[in-house]
Structure formats: structure tokens, C-alpha cells
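Lab notebook page, bench 4
Experiment: in silico fold of construct C2
Operator: M.H.
Input chain length: 210 residues
Purpose: comparison with the prior construct
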Amino acid sequence: MTDSEQRLAPPGWYLDPTGSGHRRWWNGLAWTNYMDGHAPQQGMVSGPVSQPLIPSNISLNPWPIWLLVLLPLIATLQLSTVDFEGFFRDALLSSQAGGTTHLLLPPGMLLAQALSWVFYAGGVVLAFGDWWILRRRGVVRPFHWAYAFLPTLVYLIGRTVVLRRRATRGQSPLWTYLLVSVLSGAIGGYIVSNALMNVIAEYAAAYSQT
């Protein structure tokens, strides 16, 4: 391959640029140490792309995927800064006033809404980093990072299916994400329900004294 062809070539077996007479595996970014023992064809090899063996000491779960998996928990913990009790008190006062009182969202909730877009964008960036590192580590055509624009679970499921086919491993981030999602839902539900129950208890005690 010429230098320009090399920069554009997808992962695959190509004529070894060192002149060994065999084909060397190009991962889309750089030449690897994997050599094909058969005599090469000239130029690009057509047909289905084969996956070279990835050594077991090479992790297929780099750090970006773990940050992506933990994002729901980080977002949920931010809810602890929201004054839900004050919001529920205002909501009860508004209902008692016949809905004439203007109900404002607490600043923490507005911050949470703003951060949700930050976490969304961060998830896409982390998926790109994961995809890029997997290519560098020899995975042929890993699940594309652009699927992270959809719900994170879509990217994780596709990633898991591809890695299972390529290397029969790399499934732990998906299961971790499912556990983190359940935990995040439980924490978020507790924060909101606890605030609501506290406000209800306050009003019940106030009415019992009248």
C-alpha cells in the first residue's frame, strides 16, 4: 500500500510493507505483529474480514467503557443536592391556593437537567474513546461509537455482541451497567420518596395540632 492508501485502508490483511513476502494485519490505524503464513495476493485482500487472535493479556474493557457504565450512578448521586422537600412543600401550597401560586423548580433540579446533557455528550465521547482503543488493540470493526447517540444500552448491547464474536469476552460492562442502572433507580427513588414522605409527615403533624 502507498502512504495515502494506508491512511484510508480499513482493518484487514495486506502485503507486508517490510517485504517479508507475507501478509501483515493492518488494524486501521497501524501495522500489528500478526503475520499470515500464506503467500499474499497483490494489493488489498477482498472478502470477509477475519479477526486475528487477541492475546488474553490485552484488555477489551478499557477505562472509557467503565466511566460510561458508571455515568448513571454519578448522575443519580447529583440528585442528593436537589431540595425536593422544598419543591413538594411549594407544590402543596400551590394546590391549597387553588393552583394560583407559581411553582418554581429548585435550582438543584435545574442543574440536574443541565448536567443530563453534559452526561449525554460525555457518554458519546467515552463511547468514541472505547471504540478507538478497541481498534488500537486489534479488534476488527468494533461496534461503532455513533450508536451512543441512542440510549447507552444500545451501544453496550451491540458492543457486547461484537466482542463476543470477535474474542469471546468483553461482556462484563453490559452486566455492570444493568446493575448500576438498577442501583441508580433505587437511589433516585429513595431520595424522591423520602423527601415526599417527610413533607407529608410535616403536614400531617401540623393538621393534627389544629
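Observations: Residues 39-47 have pLDDT under 50 and may be disordered. Helices lie at 3-8, 63-77, 84-96, 107-136, 152-167, 172-208.
Next step: discuss at group meeting.
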